[in-house]
Design goal:
Elements lengths: L9 H6 L7 H10 L4 H8 L11 H11 L22
Amino acid sequence: MAKPEFKYRIEELIQSLPKSKSTDWVAEQLEKEGIKRRTFFHHKAIKIDADEDLSAATLLIYARFFGVTVDDLFNYNVPVKPASERKA
């Protein structure tokens, strides 16, 4: 399997919408939720190796909009050890 190009699955989620729902339609709807059009296009183009991350509030907006969990937005695994494996 090829390594994903983008950090977030936003484009993939747009493609899974009905054909009548274009990227422009998504941008218009997200503007109503407080994510500006230009910002939306920037977010969906963040490369997998970029240092930039979206805030929890922004991720929650995208998750609710697309009807997925926040975890489903990521194209990568966040390296976090379980609490039982961390040192006190």
